[in-house]
Amino acid sequence: MRNRPRVGTLADLSGVGIHNVQVTDGAARIGGAATFTNAENSLAVAHPDHILVKALHDACSPALRNRITFGGSLALFPPWSSVVGPLVALDAELTLVGATNGTFPVSDYVGNRELGEKTAITEVCVDVSREWESHWYRFGSTHFNYPLFTVVVLTEVNGRSISDCRIVLTGNRGRFKRLVQIEDEIRGTNRPDITVTPATLGTAFPDRQGFGGQYLAHLASVEVTRGLRGTQRSKS
Amino acid sequence: MNGTITVNGTEMKIDFDPIDTLLDVLRNNGHTEVKRGCSKGECGTCLILLDDLLVNSCQVFAATALGKRVTTSTGLNEDGRPHTIHEAFADAGAVQCGFCTPGMVMATHSLLRESPDPTEEEIRAGLVGNLCRCTGYVKIIDAVKLASKRMREHG
User: Fold this and answer.
1) pTM confidence score
2) What fold does the segment set A133-235 form as a domain?
3) Do residues B93 and B122 share a domain?
4) Cβ–Cβ of A62/B19 closer than 8 Å?
5) Which ipTM value was assigned to this complex?
6) Is-contact A21 A29, C-beta < 8 A?
7) pLDDT tens by residue, chain A, 236 residues
8) Given CB atoms, is B53 within the 8 Å cutoff of chain A?
9) In which order are the strands placed within the sheet that holds B2-7?
10) B139 within a domain of the structure (yes/no)
11) Inter-chain touch A63–B107, beta carbons under 8 Å
């Protein structure tokens, strides 16, 4: 490799015991150094249809899923991260050690870069006790390419009405957005024919190579609509 | 830095810089069957098994591989004979320039270990991290199906 940086010290975190995944008592505790494959396999035993299992299985390639860690993917929030959308939607929390110590919502962490400075993520805790109907979608020019956006739609249906709803986009300006306005509109109602438009998303998308921002917003709005209709249909 | 790794069953002493990847070390020590493509984990030509886990060797620091077992495409050979997967790739005409083949073979090996009789969709998902710029993938998918059939029939 050309132009390689000089490295004085290399710290290997693989032996510090933060690579385990425990799924007990309705919660999944995923170590910061757990790989996507570890997390997917552990979670899939008890929750094969969980939104996180779908998202992890869909990320990049089998070989990279064997190396990418949960903590790294959250800390860097790279364009290929498939975990941020589901974790924000599920109100997941993470534990930090270092310059900042404590437990924080994932949404606060990925929304505030200063929170992560000089810290390490030791654990991510996800509530897996609720039975959400879920819709996961990643859009890229090819499957292996970085997704240009992702959509997560979770609905909890009680009888014929939606008792709770979570909708999260990533890849928009601001990197991620929870569509609280649409969630509030839907909660407590039964609206299988709802149509989401780019305007009601309440966020814009940056222009990307081969895809204008307006076009991406249109695609995202279609996918949120599909997600809402699909998740409702499966329970009705 | 220095240490040992076991490559295809043979212990190998290595000297390396902290920034060196496993790919650097393997190629510098004669294992040129592990190809250097993108060095970014995007092309799959450098795939190997690290303690039986499929990884892009360009995305693994050599230091983290110390004391571990590495298997390259050559290491799949059985008693000096090509592995069934190697033969299937040749028989199906899935090799053109051959640069992507070692990585394709390793991805196929990992896929068939987890799913001995994969659907075409599963094959495409299993090889999603491997790029080929010659064959257009049709023959490669045929090769995986052929390898799967032969391995199920002959063990």
Assistant:
1) 0.91
2) Enolase-like; domain 1 (3.30.390)
3) yes
4) no
5) 0.93
6) yes
7) 456 777 778 777 777 889 999 998 899 999 999 999 999 999 999 999 999 999 999 898 999 999 999 999 999 888 778 899 999 999 999 999 999 999 999 999 999 989 999 999 999 999 999 989 999 999 987 777 789 999 999 999 888 889 999 999 999 999 999 999 999 999 998 866 789 999 999 999 999 988 999 999 999 999 999 999 886 554 33
8) yes
9) B10-15, B2-7, B69-71, B47-50, B53-56
10) yes
11) yes
